[in-house]
Amino acid sequence: MAAHRGRLVYAGFGLVLLALLTYALVPSPITVDVAAAARGTLIVTVDEDGETRARDRFVVSAPVAGRVARIDLREGDPVAVDQVVAQIWTLPLSAREREEQLARIVATEALERESEERVRRVETDYAQARRDRERIEQLARHGIVSQREAEQAIVGERTQANALEEARLRERSAAADAEVARAARLALAEHQDGPEGSVRVRAPVAGRVLRIPERSERVVQAGTPLLVLGDPRRLEVVLDVLSTEAVKVEPGMEVVLEGWGEERTLRAQVRVVEPFAFTKVSALGVEEQRVNVVADFVDPSGRLADAYRVDARIVVWRNDDVLTVPASAVFRRGEGTSVFVVEGGRARRRPVTIGHRSPTAVEILDGLRAGETVIRHPSNDVDDGVRVRAHRDPEAVSVTTPAGTLRPDDPPASAPGSRPSAGEHAAVVEP
What we know:
By secondary structure, the chain is of the alpha+beta class. The longest helix has 47 residues, at 95-141. A hairpin with a 3-residue loop joins strand 18 (346-357) and strand 19. Strands 2-11-14-13-12-15 form a 6-stranded antiparallel beta barrel. Strands 3-10-8-5 form a 4-stranded antiparallel β-sheet, with no helix packed on it. The protein is built from 4 helices and 24 strands. Helices cover 28% and strands 38% of the residues. It folds into 3 domains: 30-52 and 233-430, Efflux pump adaptor protein, beta barrel domain (Elongation Factor Tu (Ef-tu), domain 3, Beta Barrel), CATH 2.40.30; 57-83 and 203-230, CATH 2.40.50.100; 95-196.
């Protein structure tokens, strides 16, 4: 009896040891983060930094080279049409330049008088050729002269007519040159008189002064910008996007403006995608081809003014009823894409067909059903058939959306500070 009890004890001890060994050899479940596939609204955007710009901007430049007086206007001052905004005195001429200018004036006036005399002489020749032609035609009708002489008289008259037209054209050209010379003589006289010869620069439109590059008195060349005028109430938004993203943007698309100084967002609408690209060097030193996208404000622009920075999101695609999962749950396997679905405590690899995607969410076209649980950020240890255990951090604050549970390390794109880098698509999943 005692021997029987001893065998039972040893057998029980062996069973416990076998269970311990089995438990030690069986791999423990892998802790994974999970999310639920759900239907909801998916918005895909092109995100870029931009700046506001006065829609009608006028750069007032110096019409002549000279010394510009100090500009009394300030940025923001209102100006009226034809208001004097700057005054320029032409540069003084040297003695040689003045003599050359006067000699040029005398030469052009002499050419004008010469052309007038030539016109009078050719008019006399033409009148004589016309009388000769009339007499020879009469003699030819009576057979006194040959028909050949009559034809030569007609040709002579036409030649003199052409010579008269040429002389008159030269007279008009010489008269125009003389008019320019007389204007130059008047300018010289005004310049000798002093301030009366200054050039007054007037505002082409009514508006406000947006910018003055230099207010102090200085010598400028013709074409130097003096100030910029515009209406700060009529603003537009200019975004320079990558050319690969610009092909997805069309006029009329909605633009959401954020990060402009207040918590509320502003709406705008794409007016034009410029038909040419330009090269811009990125912060990493990479040359990029970019295109300007211009949008008009739909909402009042508030306290925004010219050249203010904004964060813009161009809505290129939207659907209110799509099946989505977090982008971190989708991975590439071979030539297709897959996800890991949690079934009965085990991970099952499921091939899926995806549609629109972004850094935060992916549209699932085939392979998943709403409500199924997928693994986010699957590690290399997760494989088909591996036991898994869903992990939920009780201290972490999560946000439940139709795309699943988004944890603090994967905030939605609409949250402040969670925007992707410039040029990427952003997705907003709305409940």
